[in-house]
Design a protein that fits this description.
413 residues, Dihydrodipicolinate Reductase, domain 2, Alpha-Beta Plaits, 3 domains, six-stranded parallel β-sheet, 14 helices, binds L-homoserine
Length: 413
């Protein structure tokens, strides 16, 4: 029998205990051992739980119990999760986590501790919820040099954007619905401001480059500024707006960012709706590979956590080969140098010689028309531009009597 502890009994944690209890016979058959939940750590009371007697509020009951070999961390946030996970590793316990903030901010250090002690530190559920992506990247695609990853990595924002696109629902109503359905983070700003997607693309980038990419150095935009007008222009252009996390090799540097993008209807990611996530991986030998599934929600995420626990059980004395070195984000391309075509929606005081005035500033642009657009509104797509040049061009443009209302990148994958 392998004894495990689960730290956190929230949405994902309760799903983990549910799966481990409900599927115990099947799971035992697959790992050839019984997995026994010895302790569940949470400050709240759960008197109706079938294992209510195993709840504790005291971390030392897990840390100091040498019979507990595997600890699941599903508390979320950096503290106290970081302190607890580090202590567990230092005490010789393998750790499984779904906590993307922890992995994105402390992954290099925790992987190093696990490596030195021949323990596993697994985090499949931290990216893409129930979608397998960490293990495929680490194993199935291991012979490739991964050149680029582009993903819809946040279920909440994809759900909100889908409701805005398909039902013209307001941002606020769609967010409330996502929260009611249990998709959103404790603090929804992490979803809607793009930080959750940023943590996930940082984890994927760290994996493919073998060097930690810290979220602090990654340009991150959320969807709070996306309006129903922008959604309408994207439709006229022939696409949809999606929040994309993107990383690619570019001239020895890693171009990495999170931002809303116009994705053409011809691209596979354009049809990924609701809470679904999709991750497009470009390997030098495989070409494009797309991973698709539910990126948020209790049981999809919990199933990935439980699979990691099972992996730990079958590899108790053998370390899975997941590792990246620490870094100072030295390989991350400065945001000003990133290159994209941009969609621009602007207010024009005067539309005389419009084509000439726009192309004089941005280069040759293509204009987009939309039904029921306000009289003084214009919209166009620029050529590929360095962000610093685009920013400069916007300032020149505004001196000529225009006001930029929104600017959104055009996906190039
Ligand atoms: N809040 C996250 C999302 C949960 O919406 O994708 C899964 O990481």
């Amino acid at each position: 029998m392998i004894q495990v502890a689960v730290m956190g009994h929230g949405v994902v944690g309760s799903g983990v205990t549910e799966i481990l209890l409900n599927n115990s016979a099947e799971i035992a058959k697959r790992v050839r051992d019984e997995i026994y939940i010895k302790k569940v750590l949470d400050l709240r009371e759960f008197p109706d739980s079938p294992i209510a007697d195993r709840f504790t509020k005291d971390f030392s009951e897990i840390e100091d119990d040498d019979e507990i070999k595997i600890v699941v961390e599903v508390m979320g946030g950096v503290e106290p999760a970081y302190t607890f996970v580090k202590s567990c590793l230092l005490k010789g316990k393998s750790v499984v986590t779904s906590n993307k903030e922890l992995v994105a901010k402390k992954g290099a250090e925790l992987l190093k501790i696990a490596n030195e002690r021949n323990l596993n530190f697994l985090f499949e559920a931290s990216v893409g919820g129930g979608i397998p992506i960490i293990r495929p990247l680490n194993q199935c695609l291991a012979a490739n040099n991964v050149e680029e990853i582009d993903g819809i990595l946040n279920g909440t924002t994809n759900f909100i954007l889908t409701k805005m696109i398909e039902d013209s629902m307001s941002f606020e109503d769609a967010l409330k619905l996502a929260q009611d359905l249990g998709y959103a983070e404790r603090n929804p700003a992490a979803d809607v401001e793009g930080h959750d997607a940023c943590r996930k693309i940082c984890i994927l980038a760290s994996m493919i480059f073998g060097k930690h990419v810290y979220p602090d150095g990654v340009h991150t935009e959320g969807i709070t500024k996306v309006t129903l007008d922008d959604v309408g222009y994207a439709q006229s252009w022939g696409g949809v707006i999606k929040l994309i996390g993107s990383v690619k090799q570019n001239g020895g540097k890693h171009q990495i960012l999170v931002a809303p993008m116009f994705v053409p209807n011809t691209n596979q990611l354009s049809s990924v709706d609701d809470v679904f996530n999709a991750i497009l991986v470009k390997g030098d030998y495989t070409g494009d590979v797309v991973f698709y599934g539910k990126g948020a929600g209790k049981l999809p995420t919990a199933s990935a956590v439980v699979a990691d626990v099972m992996d730990c059980v079958t590899n108790l004395d053998r370390r899975r080969n997941i590792f990246w070195e620490d870094s100072k984000n030295e390989s991350v391309m400065p945001f000003e140098d990133t290159m994209y075509s941009m969609f621009v929606r602007a207010y024009a005081v005067d539309k005389t010689d419009l084509d000439k005035r726009v192309s004089g500033v941005f280069g040759e642009c293509s204009f987009i028309e939309k039904d029921n657009a306000p009289e003084n509104e214009i919209a166009f797509v620029t050529p590929l531009m360095k962000y610093s040049d685009f920013d400069k061009a916007c300032r020149t443009f505004e001196k000529d009597g225009f006001r930029v209302l929104s600017s959104i990148r055009i996906a190039d994958f």
